[in-house]
Amino acid sequence: MFFRNIPGGMRMAGTGTVTELEVHDVRFPTSEQLDGSDAMNPDPDYSAAYVVLHTDGGPPGHGLCFTIGRGNEVMAAAIRSLAPYVVGRSAPATAADLAALHHDLTHDSQLRWLGPEKGVMQMAAGALVNAAWDLAARRAGLPVWEFLAALTPEELVSLVDFRYLSDALTPDEALALLRAAAPGRAARAARLKAEGYPAYTTSPGWLGYDDGKLVRLAREAVADGFGQIKLKVGADLDDDKRRLRLARDAVGPGVRIAVDANQRWDVAEAVRWMTALAPWTPHWIEEPTSPDDVLGHAAVRSGQPVKVATGEHVANRVVFKQLLQAGAVDFVQIDAARVAGVNENLAILLLAAKYGVPVCPHAGGVGLCELVQHLAMFDYVAVSGSWEDRVIEYVDHLHDHFSDPVVIDRGRYRAPTAPGFSARMKPGSLAAHRFPDGPVWRARQRPRRPHGEQEVPV
Ligand SMILES: [Mg+2]
Known about the structure:
458 residues, alpha/beta, TIM Barrel, 4-stranded antiparallel sheet, 17 helices, 14% strand
């Protein structure tokens, strides 16, 4: 689907103009191998609503929203509804351009009604904001993490929408945080390029894997240099005890094992379940309950001994603010494609820094590792200034569909060097996995449909 030069967009001579918005519904049949399976998502087909911003002078910008199958067409439609804000606009190049675009995409008074600032429309805005950052960084010849880290503290503060935040973080406080980190930027960037950023792997722990595969992959993770793995939990307590014991035996006492319930429990159940798993010393319990339940997370944190992490489904900066104000989390898990792109994630990084809570990004899916590594690295260089107790999730799926895939070396993300956001998918992968008419899906007819709906021939 293409949109061209819709009237009403802004235009500046000589800087290049966004001429087309390309939107793809791309899906991968990952449910066939139970890759990505957990207590709430037993059959995910990893998918992306993928966008390309074409320009008439310079490189295109690439972005995406991650979904897990049905509903990806809804996400694609939401992105298309925002086309008037990008097509015909001057290609964003500066912090001011990127702040204005983020504001416009999240403040359409009619589309905002569908949120506000949450759910499908927020994610759609995020895909376009991130594509704009990809475009701007490519024009500057820098990877996004380095493009961000080259901005002044004043420019970074100008990117953030502080509405609803000022009771927890004011622009002046954010500026002070960023100024305090500025003198060490160059040294940390050099160290990051030399050493890479710490990672952990979820690949051994999908709920659909049998015990043998769990043990084999856990051992391989340690051999590959990872200091932390993660297991999915929450379907059956006895199974979780057995799997956690097997994993602990496989990796030894010195490797961290986080566990992830993917929102499965009520608060009391989370407390009971994690109290039972505590003897195997999980490093954190991730998403123990609803991502909207701030006080519930606080109760889980105070009711059992395992640290609490959440964020991959947290809708916006306001909920992150409350999680931090309520002392509800030990780790903040940003997601590059859940909120409204780089700008809103910058707000969340600043909030986490203010409250002294480590950010351990969620990744996996389609392209989430590629995207979020830039945000974590920027945080290390220019915001928190630390990678202590911080790790980026890594899942070893689907990277070969990207032109600049992540590089993992001895359990660490190597700092990207290619210009942009690492978000460009290979044209052949896009064509093969386009839903429902790409050859991968034609060969499978239609995916399973819920509740006995009729199969639709393609
Ligand atoms: Mg998770």
